Amino acid sequence: MKKKCFVFFLASFLVICASLSMDPASAAAKEKKSITIAAGRPGDVWYVLSHALATFINERSDKLKADVVATAGVTDNTRLIMGKPEFRATHVNVTMIPGHTVWGKGEYFPLKIGSLVHLASVWITFDPKIKTFTDLKGKAVALPRKVEKGYAWIFADQLKQAGVWESIKPMHGGLSALVTALRDGAAHAGVMMFDFVYPNEFRLGSSLEELKARATLHFIQQGNVDANIAMIAKACRSEEFAALNLPTLALVVPAKAMGPTQTEAMAVVSCPVYWSAGKEMPNDVVYEITKILYEAAKKGDFAPYHTMGKGITPDFLTTSFWETEKLCQDNFHPGALKFYDDVKIRLKSFGEEYAKYRK
Fold first, then answer.
1. Fewest CB atoms less than 10 Å from the CB: which of 26, 74, 201, 231?
2. What is the pTM of this model?
3. Alpha-carbon gap, residue 342 to 295, rounded angstroms
4. In whole angstroms, what is the distance from residue 50 CA to residue 207 CA?
5. In angstroms, how far is CA 333 from the centroid of its own chain?
6. Is the pLDDT of residue 15 over 50?
């Protein structure tokens, strides 16, 4: 009897030991790969929507787990990743155009995964006599911050093309500073962002609504869409951006979309912000991220997180400003391209959206 008990005990002990020795290997097989989304300032729309993406990854992927890290802004997302080379294989980068090709100092290049939002901007004034850029001669003009290869220089070049740059008083600053300058009358006109929700929603947004409460808003440089798209195209290829091979960052706002004083369609500057990753991030990891991003966009899952999330659709993810499909492919991550090819989504240009306005 004792012998039988001993045999039973020994057999049980060996089974337990075998199972324990197998657990680490089994756990390792199931361990998820960690990724981080560098998402900019807390409160920014891309920070909020990146948290949404991280949530979807954590809920829906059996391969990845994601977290989000805050930085001082979109530019600093790249600086964070550049600071530790090993981050290039593990970090999704919220980046934008212009700037995406230079912030990595030629060592790190963020390749697109999918569109996030657009920083669309319009020229406004309270003075109904100011209708075109030439009317800004000698005026104080509110412009975005001076950032190397930043979009402020697109607007500056528009004024150069109009022949008024040397005569104006430029007032550079952040969003709140620009609102204050315009609201208090220190600036006669300026550039302000508005909300664009793909494909066809145009809203004033909180800053323009605040200014509208002060007086009637008037929109500068209306009409002549074809000529103004050409002006934006030239500005994107000006001396500041000569080596960057920027696409034409133009968006067309239909007449009346911004209110009754916008009587004609307008070509405006629109700078895309998007999720990206360096070539160092494995293709299969980016494929998985893209798959979850696409499925969430298809279901409209981003809308509850932020009003701008409504615009994140499958079509928006793959629409960009690069003029040809070849340029699109060159600027998308291979892992993302593989997924879009698998679901037969075509990469297309915003130029197709406003072709009807071109002569």
1. 26
2. 0.88
3. 13
4. 23
5. 15
6. no
